[in-house]
């Protein structure tokens, strides 16, 4: 009889900035900690990480001092698993170990679908690495999990996998319920007291901040607030326009409490992305009582149904004021459907089944 293996979570996500994938990994791991028995599941983390969550039942393994992701993934973690055969890896971050594959979350295959978005040498190297990982996952992962039917179907078609072999575990916005809004974000800036639209996102091309920039240029009387890690350095040339519109304020990185305050007060939250495997921020905005405007593209119509106002991500010839007058469904059913508790239970059930692989 094959010996039952222990699931080992790749805890490298705790070393990365808290964006969508890392948020999902953190919340599901916290949920697994409440569901599992003591030491039933382990998590391996580089031992020089600064902030290690306190887990009740997960066994924490602090290993080595390597923080650089590729070294951790391809050498440190690989070696550990090859020398500790009692573990099966669970990876939330679109990565698969060539010689010790396990259960892998593949959120989307953006690098495969939009090669034209990767222009610089660094971008092209990033795309090459990610494409290799996608294909490794498709070929070797013991179980593939993704976050929407859109992503499942795209992965299945691209890599010739039967769709039913790919499990779907949805994302959520539940974490915003426990956050207290920090209204100090409005202090000392009279401009922020005006009616405004709000958006979150990086300068990654798929986030399509260009749509907001172009729309703002056409509607100088509307105010747009944008938050994201690299946005304060945004230049007009990055969006192929002559001058950056004065009615856009780049706020840089903001913590969840300040983001919640802006979501509560905004006229609407905008997500113009033309490619998302799921798209968490509109769920957060709905939980704050905000109206949402999202691109009619990729997974977004699947996730948000009739609760959202939709835009064409490649066309700014629309009047947002008029769009917001159109009726939409209340968000209650959507907010109930997408729950980290439900998703953690799905992953735990999967672990119970796959522990013998």
Keyphrases for this structure?
seven-stranded parallel beta sheet, 12 helices, alpha/beta, six-stranded parallel beta sheet, 13 strands, 15% strand, 357 residues, globular
Task: Summarize it.
The chain is α/β, with parallel strands linked by helices. The protein has twelve helices and 13 strands.
Overall description:
The chain has 357 residues and is an alpha/beta fold. It is built from twelve helices and 13 strands. α8 links the parallel β11 and β12 (292-295). α1 (20-35) packs across α12 (340-354). The longest helix has 20 residues, at 121-140. The N and C termini lie close together (12 Å). Mean pLDDT is 91; it is low at 231-237.
What does the secondary structure layout of this molecule look like, with pairings?
Layout: E1 6-10, H1 20-35, E2 41-45, E3 59-62, H2 69-83, E4 87-91, E5 103-105, H3 110-113, H4 121-140, E6 143-146, H5 149-159, E7 166-168, E8 197-200, H6 209-218, E9 224-227, E10 248-252, H7 256-265, E11 268-271, H8 281-287, E12 292-295, H9 300-304, E13 309-311, H10 320-323, H11 332-337, H12 340-354
Parallel strand pairs: 1-2, 1-4, 2-3, 4-5, 5-6, 6-7, 8-9, 8-11, 9-10, 11-12, 12-13
Helix pairs in contact: 1-12
């Amino acid at each position: 009889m094959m010996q039952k293996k222990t699931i080992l979570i790749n805890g490298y996500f705790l070393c990365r900035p808290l964006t969508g994938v890392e948020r999902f990994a953190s919340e599901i791991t916290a949920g697994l900690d409440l569901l599992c028995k003591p030491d039933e599941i382990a998590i391996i983390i580089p031992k020089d990480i600064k902030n290690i969550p306190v887990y009740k039942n997960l066994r924490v393994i602090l290993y080595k001092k390597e923080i650089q992701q590729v070294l951790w993934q391809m050498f440190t973690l690989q070696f550990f698993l090859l020398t500790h055969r009692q573990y099966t890896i669970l990876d939330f971050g679109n990565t698969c170990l060539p010689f010790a594959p396990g259960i892998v979350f593949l959120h989307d295959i953006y690098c495969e679908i939009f090669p034209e978005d990767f222009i610089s040498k660094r971008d092209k190297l990033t795309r090459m690495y990610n494409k290799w990982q996608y294909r490794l996952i498709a070929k070797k992962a013991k179980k593939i999990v993704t976050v929407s039917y859109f992503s499942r179907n795209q992965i299945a078609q691209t890599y010739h996998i039967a769709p039913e072999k790919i499990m779907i575990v949805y994302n959520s916005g539940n974490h915003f319920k426990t956050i207290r809004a920090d209204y100090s974000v409005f202090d000392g800036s009279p401009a922020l007291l005006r009616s405004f639209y709000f958006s979150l996102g990086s300068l990654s091309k798929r986030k399509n901040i260009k749509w907001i920039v172009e729309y703002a240029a056409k509607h100088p009387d509307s105010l747009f607030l944008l938050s994201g890690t690299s946005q304060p350095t945004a230049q007009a040339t990055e969006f192929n326009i002559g001058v950056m519109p004065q009615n856009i304020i780049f706020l840089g990185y903001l913590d969840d409490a300040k983001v919640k305050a802006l979501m509560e007060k905004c006229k609407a939250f905008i997500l113009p992305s033309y490619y998302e495997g799921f798209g968490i921020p509109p769920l957060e905005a709905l939980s704050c009582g905000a109206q949402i405007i999202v691109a009619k593209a990729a997974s977004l119509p699947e996730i948000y149904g009739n609760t959202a106002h939709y835009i064409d991500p490649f066309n700014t010839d629309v009047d947002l004021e008029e769009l917001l007058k159109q009726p939409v469904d209340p968000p209650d059913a959507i907010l109930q459907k997408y729950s980290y508790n439900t998703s953690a239970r799905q992953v735990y059930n999967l672990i119970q089944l796959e522990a013998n692989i």
